[in-house]
Design brief:
Blueprint: H1 2-29, H2 34-39, H3 45-55, H4 61-73, H5 87-122, H6 127-141, H7 144-158, H8 174-208, H9 211-218, H10 223-234, H11 236-252, H12 255-260, H13 266-276, H14 279-307
């Protein structure tokens, strides 16, 4: 088991290196000069050149990349060209809302998606199955911004149960913190919930046709034990894959949700940085999200070996 974990961790290092190279290369190959954007349309050429020199953009790309990697190795993601703040500080301020929404959305999606999928597989080809699958199709088909506005109108405006915009930090009280998270988290969870439901149904339905399930039922086991102890555990690997992909997608795909609900998260930070061509922030946010992707995939790989010990061999 230890060798398997070490092997998976070492395999993640080249992935992060490739992500760093691609992130740096794409940003510096895109047309446009960030120094001109910072200086403004009325700036003199010497002012633009001074800004370019201050940011190090007048040096060869390989030198810029080497300096960036050197700073990155020391935990320094650079300085914002506009605000002058450290990128690590900006990300630390914004990562809390994004992670909070993603975690609560994952709780909603997993706690509802897996039971619904098992129920649909158990009641296959009945009205219950068709109703659950209709919900799953709608969840996958409707765009996040539309779902967000519908949920906002029903729960926030019509019934006035929850605030429709903004964010409250945990220091302001857990109840207030949770109240502002419910609507954006519920919106973000619907697509993942639908995906988990469909995958759980398909995997569980396949397992329910196996001989050992018929044997378990013939021995007189309760249907609940047959479904969750025997069928669901043996159907868990594809479900884990979808959950891992969905968690990574949640963090990187919260830009729209954060914009709809006016949440000051990493998504809005990235959008503002792209509009201003702030290279340091873009690189820092993309790299942070990429590290999260790698960590989620690594965690899923390790869970594979726990759910099915044959994987580690």
């Amino acid at each position: 088991m230890r060798r398997y974990i070490v092997r998976r961790v070492l395999a993640s290092i080249p992935v992060l290196a490739v992500v760093a190279i691609i992130t740096f290369g794409i940003l510096h190959l895109t047309p446009g000069d960030p120094a001109e954007v910072i200086a403004g349309p009325d700036a003199r050429p010497e002012d633009v050149e001074a800004i370019r020199t201050r940011l190090g953009l007048d040096r060869p790309a390989i030198v810029q990349f080497g300096n960036w990697i050197g700073s990155l190795a020391q935990g320094d993601l650079g300085v914002s060209a506009f605000s002058g703040q450290r990128v690590t500080s900006l990300i630390a301020e914004r990562i809390g809302p994004t992670v909070s929404i993603a975690v609560l959305a994952a709780v909603f999606a997993i706690s509802l998606g897996i039971p619904l999928g098992v129920l649909a597989a158990w009641k296959a080809n009945t009205w219950i199955d068709r109703t659950v699958m209709l919900f799953a199709v709608l969840g996958l088909s409707l765009p996040a911004f539309l779902l967000g506005f519908v949920i906002m109108w029903i729960l926030g405006i019509k019934f006035q149960l929850l605030p429709v915009a903004g964010y409250a930090r945990l220091s302001e009280g857990f109840g207030e913190y949770l109240k502002y998270l419910v609507l954006p988290s519920l919106t973000a969870s619907l697509t993942l919930m639908a995906l988990i439901t469909r995958m759980t149904r398909a995997s569980t339905l396949e397992v329910l046709r196996e001989d050992y399930i018929r044997t378990a039922r013939a021995k007189g086991l309760q249907e609940r034990l047959v479904l969750f102890r025997h069928a669901l555990r043996n159907a868990a690997l594809p479900i884990l894959t979808v959950v891992g992909f969905g968690l990574a997608f949640l963090v990187s795909g919260l830009v729209i949700v954060e914009s709809v609900f006016a949440v000051p998260g990493m998504g809005r930070l990235l959008v503002d940085a792209i509009r201003q061509r702030d290279y340091s922030i873009i690189q820092g946010v993309v790299l942070t999200v990429s590290v999260f992707y790698v960590l989620v995939n690594l965690t899923v790989d390790l869970l594979y070996s726990y759910v099915d010990p044959r994987v580690r061999y």
